[in-house]
Specification:
Blueprint (H helix, E strand, L loop, with lengths): L3 H4 L8 H24 L6 H22 L3 E6 L5 H8 L17 E8 L7 E9 L2 H22 L13 H4 L2 H10 L8 H19 L12 E4 L4 H5 L28 H7 L3 E10 L16 E4 L8 H10 L5 E7 L6 H13 L3 H4 L3 E6 L14 H6 L2 H13 L7 E3 L2 H8 L7 H31 L4 H12 L2 H42 L13 H25 L19 H14 L3 H7 L30 H4 L6 H36 L1 H8 L1 H14 L6 H10 L5 H8 L21 H10 L21 H50 L5 H9 L13 H12 L6
Parallel strand pairs: 1-6, 1-7, 2-5, 7-8, 8-9
Antiparallel strand pairs: 2-6, 3-4, 3-5
Helix pairs in contact: 2-3, 2-19, 2-32, 3-19, 5-8, 5-11, 16-17, 16-18, 17-18, 20-30, 21-24, 21-30, 24-28, 24-30, 27-30
Length: 878
Amino acid sequence: MTDFHAGQGGSASSSATGHRTAIARYRELADRAMTALGQEDVPQAAALRQAHDRAAGLAVKLRERCAKPVSVGIVGEYSAGKSMLLGTLLGAPGLLPVSGSPTTGNVTVLRVEPAPPGEPTRVRAARIEYLTRDELAETVGYIMDELVRTVQRAGGGRDVSALGGYNPVRDGWDVLNRWAENTLDWAAMENSRLLGITLELTRIRDALRLAGEFVLDGHTGLTLPVEPDMLRQALDIEDIRDLPRVFPRTAQGFPLSPRDPLTAQTLRTTFTLIRRVVCQVSVAQGDWAGPLPGDGTAAELCDLPGLGATAVRDEYLSVRELDEIDAIVIVLPSHRAERDDARQFYSLLERNRRGKGALSESILVAANCFDLLQPPDVPFAGVADLVASSRDLSSLHRMATTLNGRREDRVAFTSSLVAIAAQGLPYETGGEEGEKITASLGVAGAQAERWKRIAADLALTDPGHPYTAAFGGFGRDGGVAGLRDMLDRHVRTYGVFLKHEAVVPIATDLLAALRALDRMLRPALGGAPAGVRDTGSLTALFRMIEEETSHTVRSLGLLADPERLAADGTQVVPGGSAVLDLARAGATYDVFTWREWQQYRDRVGDDGRIGPPLGGGRAGGRGFGVARRMPTEADATAPDTTERLFARFEPTCVRAVGEAREIYLEAVAAWAERRHRELAHVRERLRAPDTAESVGRLLAALDPEDDGQARGHNLLSLVSMDWLPDAAAGLLPVPVPPSRGDRSHGSAYGDSYEDRERIAERFPLRTAQALPWNGGRRNIAGDAGARIVTHQMNIFRVRGDIVAAVGHHVRRHLLADAVRLGRELRVELQELREAVPAEESVRRLTRRGTHDGGRAPAGGPVRDLLDEWDGKSGGNAR
């Protein structure tokens, strides 16, 4: 029963052709499933119809997902300038509505095509896609959950018992109306967050009352064309922070009909019922027409609602759309990068479908409005020195690299204003927004020139750092060309792979739904082989094993994410420490205890001037620390460079990885122990004397070559986890730091020779950025006190850079270890899972002796599809 996807996985480095082939096979599965489900004779029993409809819905979803272009999501807080940046990328900054205030937004999808010669970039056509009734109920349920949480956080003893399990779309709005009017103090405006959420719900209430015909039952929602000049009504609505002083009564008026012409008033009324807006954009010849994934299509660009406004509906639309997005650009406002909005979206990604290891493959960061960040006005020797000298730039760097997995090459510094000034791009000059742009162009251009000069200096001292080119690109054109190139490269390399990764879970769910339906349609028959008396009980046991195995596989996501895994094998609680946190803390302590820091501090004299290197520091590093080691002849020739620190940095990295693995393996062992206990009831049932005899006879009939011994062993291993700790330790041996001068190959040093090369690359103190107290920079200007303080700050900065580099090395290794363990464990569980006898195999054995030649009768369209699919994918019938 091995599924096709079990042998069709891969990575971003796998062949793009292989990913496209796999997607095409899944599309074939979806089409075949829809045909088989249409041909299947399904009784009218409610459970059977529900199972049939679930499988049909998944087949439709899989087909649509396979046919959908690679999608790039653009997300950011409401004032990060993402909509204007998206238009600027396409050569038209005013392509989408722009607002400086928080507004309730809708998902906007841009499908790009070349424009005819001579035509400008414009929205050629657009359509509105409305939510179905089930989707609207899910949306309102999401908002209701947040409403209850907000009430509970606010305290005050408000009673929310009436809201438990209640959904106004299904149950009517009377309960919410009474609760909101009698419980909340609208006149006092006591809790704007609480009132804002309630106001959202009343607007959905009013839209549903006046435009209920726009919300359809079934799997497909209403779609209506809209004139491009009416898009603002579909994308912007009044500021929901303007709260009324009384509870809004239900709106009255004539019902709207989708059969009537679509007007601006209709769009304003139905705004909260819209799922998304799809725009067909024609791009002028010579302008960028979007990233190309290499599969013969253009990727679509998806502008998600701005975060940071009051609307919970916006958040839900973003969460829902994540299933359709393959790559992500997070737009940060450079001058306030460390707000919670980016972290909020990152949490949405994790909560929806992605672990932090996988996110590093899908996220790019655009540090937008970079013209508002003041360039540092102090001397610097390289990018690290420059970043450390500016609080805002340090915050921006820290947030950007946290979001994208420490990938500095996936950060672009951008500004639509600089792009407009440098390239003469057209923009709407009228209105408040147009006046702001016109007034800001001169200042933005001047800032761009300053960053261009900084980039020119960095090209001499730190030419290889990704930020050097990124700063230069910002100075030339607002970073637009760099972001375009980054998107092109990322989508071409990862786009089809990420789409394949998104398709796999849907296919898995579809196959599970088809098998569940097949089991319901064709229950086990009587006539079991000798010794197998209760076929139904065995079938139930094997189903239990399958379900528990599926649960085990799902829970592997926690093991694959050391940033969520606690040391006791559970998910880390708020305020707790994850495995990676503990590993980083240990690495930080290791670096802080290097004796070199005290030696460097000891070199500054009373006049603040730095003397020659002493090498020994305090006498033996023991005692009260009063006596200092006097210099020797050997000390006079000691190198005053980064060599000494690198000699400590290299084994520290290896040691930190080893300690991180030990912490991680202990957490894995704790997880395995808990899961082993949870599976005890299955093992007991499997080992029960009456069941064990029947199982043994059945397994012997399936595998007469060894009387079912191997299959029995695998079955028991499948419901045990006591073998995992030793297996994990064997897969992830703890590396041992090399002795001085030892550069032999082998796992005792690290994972590979390439790993040693990466350690050298991660060392933050390159030659051009030698120690601040080295050579000609040894004696710092200023009075004695200033020199002492500056010298100490330099030491702290170097130590902080090394801590960050070791921490990054630990994180990279630990994430790779977790992904590797998760992958190997999934493979192992899949092999063990082959031991579970398929129900068709049991039925086939059951039928033998009652049918000529031992052949079973035909199984039906769904069963035939599953048998053929398993056969094509290289599985066996078990």
